[in-house]
Specification:
Radius of gyration: 13 Å
Mean pLDDT: 97
Strand order of the largest sheet: 1-2-3-9-8-5
CATH architecture: Beta Barrel
Helix content: 10-25%
Structural class: alpha+beta
Order of helices and strands: EEEHEEEEEHHEH
Low-confidence stretches: none
Oligomer: single chain
Strand content: 25-35%
Length: 126
Amino acid sequence: MNIPSELKYTKDHEWVKIEGDVATIGITDFAQGELGDIVYVEVDTLDETLDIEEVFGTVEAVKTVSDLFLPLTGEIIEFNEGLEDEPEKVNSDPYGDGWMIKLKFTDASQVEGLLSAEDYKALISG
């Protein structure tokens, strides 16, 4: 299972890549494996400012629909439109072409609350 060490993680199985005050967010390799074949990603919160842990969208797999929770407070500035035509990229490349949103976050102190790769590994091996 792939858990890149340079990324941050949440207990909700999302990964976060921090670049300045912008975070790129997707779901982890573990999460896509648990969900199975992803058929649709919906994010209707583009250009909205949401609080940490608010729902910013949903990911739909063959058997289930899961909410996506914002790992940091901020404004959603970009949605990966490539997922509209190819949602399966979340399965095949969760940390690359399968990214979901970019967020301009407003409270850098919240980054400290995210899990490291080691902490996340411990969480899922439970």
